[in-house]
Amino acid sequence: MNKIDFESIEEKIRVSGVAKIISELEAGDSFVVSEVPEKYQADFLSYGFCEYAHFKDYWIDPLSVSDKLFNNYDFLLLSECIPASEITTACRGQSRGFEGENPEWFKQWLNGKEEGQMTAGCQNSSILTYREKNKIIGISCTATYAHNSEKGKVVWVRMLSVHPDYQGQGIGTKLLLQTLRYGVEHGAKRAFLHADTQNTAAIRIYSKVGFLSQEGIGQVDMIWR
């Protein structure tokens, strides 16, 4: 599936319309346009697009954690990117717009070279793990950003995944709380994550630990099949 950032085609759409974009694609192509502004969404729908995912921002502000939270972190090693990737692909489809990540993505994150990381100016990038009998069954990709903000640093929960065979046991909550503790120890005053509005199971976990949805439409991705 091809993915296109709306910003990269905005001028062409403004001048020639959505039909022009469709006409330039090969027949049978399936592609997602990310971050479609609200004012363009009706046009996309009229040409046969449909909503692929609707992400909203969730924040904890201000951020504080209990001193009683465990901080015996277990970090993913570069040599463990394949099993980490397998967890995310096993969760494919549990949230709209989430297809999992390949091992190379995890290597880039650990090395601070992932595109979103670099754009946000992230620091302290890590991947926390949860293991059972030395087997990785859950991961939390995290980093801090906004280091020069007057409001304080932010700990970003970039991705939280637990293998489906182990879901419903509180592992995701433990990883999330541990991630917040990690952020506080690296100076974070706020916490941020992105979630699809239909991923109700995950949103329940986020809400339980204090994340609140931010007002506004959020990010809408649209798909042409």
The secondary-structure element order is EHHEHEHHHEEEHEHEE
Largest sheet: 9 strands, mixed
Backbone structural class = alpha+beta
CATH topology of the largest domain: Aminopeptidase
Instruction: Indicate how many domains the architecture comprises.
Output: 2
What does the overall shape look like?
globular
**CATH A-level architecture of the largest domain:** 3-Layer(aba) Sandwich
What are the segments in which pLDDT stays under 50 over at least 5 consecutive residues?
A: none
Please give the radius of gyration in angstroms. 19 Å
Give a structural overview.
The protein is α+β, with helices and mostly antiparallel strands and 225 residues long. The chain folds into two domains: 2-48, no CATH class; 57-216, Gcn5-related N-acetyltransferase (GNAT) (Aminopeptidase, 3-Layer(aba) Sandwich), CATH 3.40.630.30. It contains eight helices and nine strands. Strands 1, 2, 3, 4, 5, 6, 7, 8 and 9 form a nine-stranded mixed beta sheet that branches. Strand 6 (153-162), helix 7 and strand 7 form a beta-alpha-beta unit. Helix 4 crosses helix 5 (103-110). It is globular, with a radius of gyration of 19 Å. The termini are close together.
Relevant terms:
33% helix; Aminopeptidase; 2 domains; nine-stranded mixed sheet; alpha+beta; globular; single chain; 225 residues
